[in-house]
Write a structure and sequence with these properties.
The complex is a heterodimer of chains A (421) and B (103). Chain A has 421 residues and is α+β, with helices and mostly antiparallel strands. Chain A has 16 helices and 13 strands. In chain A, the strands form three sheets. Chain A has a five-stranded mixed sheet. A four-stranded antiparallel sheet of chain A has the order 9-12-10-11, with helices on one face. In chain A, helix 4 runs antiparallel to helix 5 and helix 12 packs across helix 13. The longest helix of chain A has 21 residues. Chain A is globular. Chain B is built from one helix and seven strands, in the order βββββββα. By secondary structure, chain B is mainly beta. A seven-stranded antiparallel sheet of chain B has the order 3-2-1-7-6-5-4, with no helix packed on it. Helix content of chain B is 4%, strand content 64%. The chains are: A alpha+beta (421), B mainly beta (103). At the A-B interface, helix 1, strand 4, helix 4, helix 14 and strand 13 of A face strand 4 and strand 5 of B.
Amino acid sequence: MQNLELPINSESPQILHIDLNSCFATVEQQARPLLRGRPLGVTNRLTKNACVVAASYEAKDQGVKVGMTFSEARLLCPDLIMVETDPPKYHYVYKKLVRIMRSYSPNITMKSIDEGIIDFHGTRENVNRRPLSVIGHEIKQRLRADVGCWMRCNVGIAPNRFLAKTAAGLHKPDGLDIITYKNLRRTLEGMKLTDLTGIADKNQARLNAAGIYTPLQFLDSPAPVLSRKVFHSVCGDDWYRRLRGWEVDDAEHDTKTIGRQFVMDDYSASEEKVRNRLAHLCESTGLKLRHKGFCARGISLYIQYKSGDAWHSRKAFKSTFFTSPEIYRRATLLFNQHPRLDNVVMLSVSCYLLQPATTNQMSILEEVNKEIRLTEAIDELNELYGNYTVTFANSLGANREIKQKIPFGSTRYFELLCNRA
Amino acid sequence: MDQAELINKEVSIVAYYFRNNSRRLRCFPKCMEYDGRRVRFTETGLVHPTQKGKRMIHVFDMTDGNADYRLEFDAQALSWTLIAITDNQYSSIAPKLRTAHQF
């Protein structure tokens, strides 16, 4: 009931959100000057069915959207140039951005590869005395100086993370906006529900069903209506606080699963080929698992077919595992149960029931210890000469097809994945 | 489509080094000899490090105003490699370079 009386947060904004504009496309245009000012799409694989993962503003002006296939995008924009993603470039820009952000506050959070948050709480009295808008402009300037003249970013300043992200999206590209308790209503007035981060079609339908059609109506809705009638959960309270500028999104989540998935390069692949891709995915999952210092007790396998059907199986074991051969062996146990193997479109392996590997004791079985020592030796070799230099015989050649792509969302494995052979 | 022509050959580079505010010198590959011709670079697009195992490789994306060049400098072997050239006629040359296996 306390939430009913919660006012709009009148604290001066202390959160600064930075969002690189069309990050991958802008970085490609920065790297290749002759692409500047031209419609550009970035894709993970240069095939006609691959989708655009980033589009330059010139391409967006012609109707190209992220998620379109190359064929669809080419219909809208015949001059569209497609380039393949180049993770080390984005990693470099990411590191530069982190360095710039860290120079203002130790309290930074990278939300993904192209956006981050600086929390200025506790630094304003002695270190960052200038207005945040001045700091925002300085960050834009530093990004251009450190990376290149084509780089642009949006900056949003607000009392909480959600409103700061909203502010960063108001004037793209290269905008800087501030949302405070004074202009909150005016800002929300000009927006649609789906303009709010976290409100897509389904949540919009939920809100509409409760008679909420605009962000302002959303803001004015009491907490009990949101939690009991709209979201039927604590999410309603979160939205109530979030829209009023109170922080609810600063929680850190533990890693629950680690895995890898791959959209098949050949939809009519033979069983041998699918097993080859599976072996590589298991190896890659093991690499991530060990990089994070985890071992797992459960493994799950997901296969999607061309018809749209999917098959999924998971199994929890009593013993923990973290070596690649052991992941492959256990994944194979599940894989052998698959109902059919024609027209596999996507293959996914993930480990769950994770726990720190430091709790592992030495096994009384010498074979197990041997395998662990072998894995450590192989990891050392691969670190020295590049990932997959020493690899499973039955995954040979797969790393040419299953290339490491840019990670959306988390950037936890960036360092690991950029180490090429 | 990306019309990069893969070269992957060691080349001879004349590079200028500039002192800047940071401790490290800033490198600008000025001129490259490749295939019997001399290419004079006019602008650096992006310089970023990458790793091949433990070896540090500096990738230079350069342009001479007519084409974009991707160069790699191996900091261990101190050698320059021309990785790819991309013509500025990105779209118009696409049909010539596009082959069946790309689609």
